[in-house]
Specification:
The protein has 166 residues and is mainly beta. The chain has a single domain, classed as Pnp Oxidase, Chain A, CATH 2.30.110.10. It is built from three helices and twelve strands; from the N terminus they run αβββββαβαββββββ. Strands 3-2-6-9-10-5-4 form a seven-stranded antiparallel beta sheet. The chain is globular and about 50 Å long. The two termini are 26 Å apart. The structure holds flavin mononucleotide. Flavin mononucleotide binds next to strand 3 and strand 5. The site of flavin mononucleotide (FMN) has 18 residues, from strand 3 and strand 5.
């Protein structure tokens, strides 16, 4: 194991050893525009009340729109949605061309074929260094256990493989 300088690129590489799923955070912006950003800084926080969090870089163009809305949706991507992850990671681009979605209770766009969805109301926002931490209360949750998740590890997309029995 090598020690790294946390001011260096290697810090990101060390963080990248934590395998995550991939989400697209979606919302309806203040002028009715569709927001969508690929995010892997998602985490569960609390069961009662049901809280989750995600973090957005303070330089993201969409940040002020998320700060102006009262709700957002977390779309947990399935393994077939790698191209959507790339599409929603493009800074400033029109990310919604050709994207199939529907709306539920909050009006946030919900991606079709997501593995799980959490519709949330924003409860707290905290400054966290160069990111803003959004804490949402989950109002609607849904999942499809027949799908496989898209996984992100060390800068690469992956799928999960169960370990053989010991
Ligand atoms: C797999 C993956 C995970 C990402 N996770 C985050 C994240 O947790 N927070 C974040 O701010 N940006 C994250 N990004 C980058 C954003 O998707 C990208 O900077 C953002 O969508 C640009 O949005 P903008 O048009 O609002 O600037 C991630 C990108 C990828 C490919």
């Amino acid at each position: 194991m090598q020690t790294v300088d946390v001011k260096d690129r290697e810090f990101r590489n060390a963080l990248g050893c934590f395998a995550t799923g991939v989400t697209v955070i979606t919302a309806l912006g203040p002028s009715g525009e569709l927001l969508g950003n690929t995010v892997n800084s998602f985490s569960s926080v609390s069961l009662d009340p049901p809280l989750i969090l995600w973090c957005m870089g303070r330089h993201a163009m969409s940040l002020k729109n998320y700060l102006s809305t009262e709700s957002f949706a977390v779309n947990i991507l399935s393994s077939s949605q790698r191209s959507l992850s790339n599409q929603f990671a493009k800074a400033g681009a029109d990310k919604w061309t050709g994207v199939a979605y529907e709306t539920w209770n909050s009006g946030c766009p919900i991606l079709k074929s997501a593995m799980a969805v959490f519709e949330c109301q924003t409860r707290h926002t905290y400054m966290g260094g160069d990111h803003v931490i959004f804490v949402g209360e989950v109002m609607t949750a849904a999942f499809d256990a027949t799908l496989e998740p898209l996984v992100f590890l060390q800068g690469k997309y992956r799928t999960v493989q169960p370990l053989p029995k010991p």
